[in-house]
Amino acid sequence: MKTRLTYGCFAAAYYLSWGWFAGVGVLVNLLCLPLLLLPCRERLGPAMRGVVRGLFRAWLLWFETSRCLRIRWRGFDAPLAPRTIFVANHPTLLDATFLLARLPDAICVFKPALMRNPAVGPVALLAGYAAGETDIDLIRDMAGRVASGRSLLIFPEGTRTKTGTTLGMLKPGYALVAGRARAAVQLIVIRASADLVPRGRPWWRPPAILPAWVELTLDRRWEYDPARRTRDLTVEVERRLSEVLDAS
Roughly what angle, to the nearest 10 degrees, separates helices 230-247 and 173-181? Predict the structure, then answer.
């Protein structure tokens, strides 16, 4: 009986976290809609990324306070270098929110459908996030932004890891961006409860075991090397990520 009651309390906190996320998200995006009409909206990018970072930090604080989700950070104690391409595996729906709360002035790539969503798109557009699949125009755009001083968060799998597997096939777009921007690549390894909103599981179904957990580890870093081929970099990153995940 006590176990069921404890789970029920954690499940209530889990649902409240999504209610908080949706309510605040819709409100902020509605407030941002008029700002999209400004001719100089690009200047709002740094401030809006700061707003996003602050909101996601507040959401993480809610998880920490309610204890329905235990978040462990490994290797994030020292300041993170700017002009870096942060590459991570993608086991849960929440991965981007965790990392955008910690990374320095980072942008990310959204699916085009999300950018058209009025509950998400206005803030993403004002923050300077990009939309699209991996193509040459997107690579040039991202490389230019990284070269100008921003960081880039990207999930090379393109979507959440397929249930029952540890890692999907990595797309090489991030390595092409790194080459054009002459930027370093930093690997982040994410491990999480198996049923913490993985691919194919709706967000409204809480994990079977609560509190759930997620661990984010700052792993190996590849500095820019003009002699390194794009293919060699992608092979090294995929090999390292597979080794770490298979060993866990």
Answer: 130
